[in-house]
From TrEMBL:
The keyword Coiled coil applies. This is c-Myc-binding protein. Residues 62-89 form a coiled coil. Keywords: Coiled coil, Nucleus. One of its GO terms (molecular function) is transcription coactivator activity. Belongs to the AMY1 family. InterPro entries: AMY1.
């Protein structure tokens, strides 16, 4: 009997945790939205994920992001190279610091 009460207490603590974090409200509202859909989606889990904000990006979006990432990486590499060249040119025109630190 004591084991049952301890288990029930943990369950109640977990329920309060979910309620306090807003999880129960979010799940309830998404389930209500699914219930109120005139045409039920083929994949209810995808519906839940989308409405909870955890849906993965659409393949077209993912492809566009991959292309943008590749483009930005290329620009980054070019800017690093340009920065290196400019530093080298600057060093050629600046006088070398003298030993014995400036006063």
């Amino acid at each position: 009997m004591a084991h049952y009460r301890a288990s029930e207490s943990k369950r109640e603590q977990f329920r309060r945790y979910l309620e306090k974090a807003g999880v129960l409200d979010s799940l309830t509202s998404v389930l209500i939205a699914l219930y109120e859909e005139n045409e039920k989606p083929n994949n209810a889990l995808d519906f839940l994920k989308q409405h909870l904000g955890v849906a993965s990006p659409e393949p077209a979006d993912a492809d566009a992001l991959r292309l943008e990432l590749a483009d930005l990486r290329q620009k980054y590499d070019l800017l690093l190279e340009e920065n290196k060249e400019l530093k080298n040119r600057l060093l050629q025109h600046e006088p070398a610091p003298e030993d014995g630190a400036a006063e």
